[in-house]
């Protein structure tokens, strides 16, 4: 009987040229998110003994640098029956969780019965679901030119693209005219438009649309809807931290829903201080029952084909919180303390930054603010040399006030002033 030969594996044997197993587009992708890479470098230097101010990650920490959690939320998670938590969740999500989220989003509008929802792994899952369900491959989603980096990652990963428009006009307000023009271009090119808007407390700028800007934006959407189907996704990840006098965005969405497909990306990461639990939802508002059935089917199908189902324990805990008035009141009170902590930093930053003449958008609350600079990389590198870490963007640096104690704001602003000035001195002068 012939023996099996190991000759092909013997030393010195030649082999065919290696195959390229990854697709060309996948092969060129970076393995780490730039923000997480900066955070890792800041952490490495801090462990080495340097006095580091790390204003990169979007997680709320106390003045000792410890993650802020809400005790009532943690208790609710611990109370979830272990067998229910271990069991598969329904594909679309736990019904009590979804009804609670819908009520949370559209509270006071009377529109709860006109909405459907599906559970997603955090707000990021909701964004992904929208991209694959409302755009065909090769099409572009539309957002402002200051945007959360994963918008572009989601677009690229799903075979879509990202189109942008200038975020601010010459007065420093939301650039409604630029949005209108960009929306018309997208509709003319591909026959439909999916718009990602992040307000209140936009990431990365911290900007919240006021009532006038919101109404002007809604007017543009109504007008352009005559040119083709428009899907508006409002990314509300930071809505719980918005200014108390903020615009009633949920009422505006209800008024828009006759002419525009309204979506809301809901996230429990910030509102419930549970970043790792990945509790999220995509809520869709549709006045017609037939449209709601179609949306429910399409979104549930996409859930099954992407992640199958989501964190059951997290959904059950949040469902209990949203349905139990006394427990919800405890969570709201604990969140309010966290908001006060953050607002102390917002106030300190506004006072210090304005005194130094730094240029940045209106900032009334939220985890982040951006400071404009002609060379973000140079500004960021200059600040890193001083032990201060921020995230460079196109034309600005993003600062996570959520992880910056109020006592450290003077140091932060001094480093910003120095870094921006260095960038301005080295920027090419207009002739």
Describe the protein in words:
With 431 residues, the protein is α/β, with parallel strands linked by helices. It has two domains: 32-69 and 329-426, Aspartate Aminotransferase, domain 1 (Alpha-Beta Complex); 89-323, Aspartate Aminotransferase, domain 2. It has helices spanning 24-27, 34-47, 71-79, 82-86, 95-105, 122-134, 150-157, 176-190, 211-224, 249-256, 268-271, 289-306, 312-323, 325-355, 376-385, 409-426, and strands at 53-54, 115-121, 140-144, 161-165, 193-198, 230-235, 261-267, 279-285, 368-372, 388-389, 391-392, 396-400. Helix 8 packs parallel to helix 9 (211-224).
In short:
With 431 residues, the chain is α/β, with parallel strands linked by helices. The protein is 45% helix and 14% strand. The model has no long low-confidence stretch (mean pLDDT 93).
Intertermini distance: 86 Å
Assembly form of the protein: single chain
CATH topology of the largest domain: Aspartate Aminotransferase, domain 2
- Biggest sheet strand order reads 2-8-7-6-5-3-4
Query: In CATH, what is the class of the largest domain?
Result: Alpha Beta
Shape: globular
The helix count comes to 16
**Cα radius of gyration in angstroms:** 24 Å
The overall pLDDT average reads 93
Quick one: CATH superfamily of the largest domain?
Answer: Type I PLP-dependent aspartate aminotransferase-like (Major domain)
Content-based structural category: alpha/beta
Q: Classify the beta-strand content into a percent band.
A: 5-15%
Low-confidence stretches: none
Described by strand count, sense and barrel closure, the largest sheet is: 7 strands, mixed
> What is the chain-wise order of helices and strands?
HHEHHHEHEHEHEHEHEHEHHHEHEEEH
- The CATH architecture of the largest domain can be given as 3-Layer(aba) Sandwich
Number of domains: 2
> How many β-strand stretches?
12
* Portion of residues within helices: 40-55%
